[in-house]
Amino acid sequence: VAMDSLIHYESEDGLRTLAAMAETVTTSIVFTFAPKTPLLAAMHSVGQLFPRGNRSPAIAPMALSQLQRAVASQPEFTEWEMARDFRVSRGFYISHAMELTRK
Q: Which residues contact 81 (CB under 8 A, 6 or more apart)?
């Protein structure tokens, strides 16, 4: 389980991290990531205008479609498939929970 761990990784680094987990995990990987939505992208862009000391912790939004394509096409995920997923949105908190399971 990697809850709110991948939100700090750029997309490619997050996918490499998932691929490394996939090599050692036997059943399923449950994780959350920051979904790339128009609102979150706008908030992220505006946040970059503030001095570094006044910013919230850095996050790296990832498009769900990018993650789906990677799992479907990258050789590291050949034995894996997307199972459950759920968007979590409460106030200013937005994340996307997902489970990958072995085929």
A: 71, 100, 101, 103
Phi/psi of residue 51, nearest 5 degrees = -60, 145
pLDDT in tens, 25-44: 999 999 999 888 887 777 77
Full residue range of the structural domain in which residue 66 is found:
6-102
The pTM for the full model equals 0.79
Q: How many domains does the chain have?
A: 1
In whole angstroms, give the CA distance from residue 19 to residue 71.
Answer: 9
Angle between helices 11-24 and 64-73 (to 10 degrees): 40
pLDDT digits (tens, 9 = 90+) for 73-87: 989 999 999 999 999
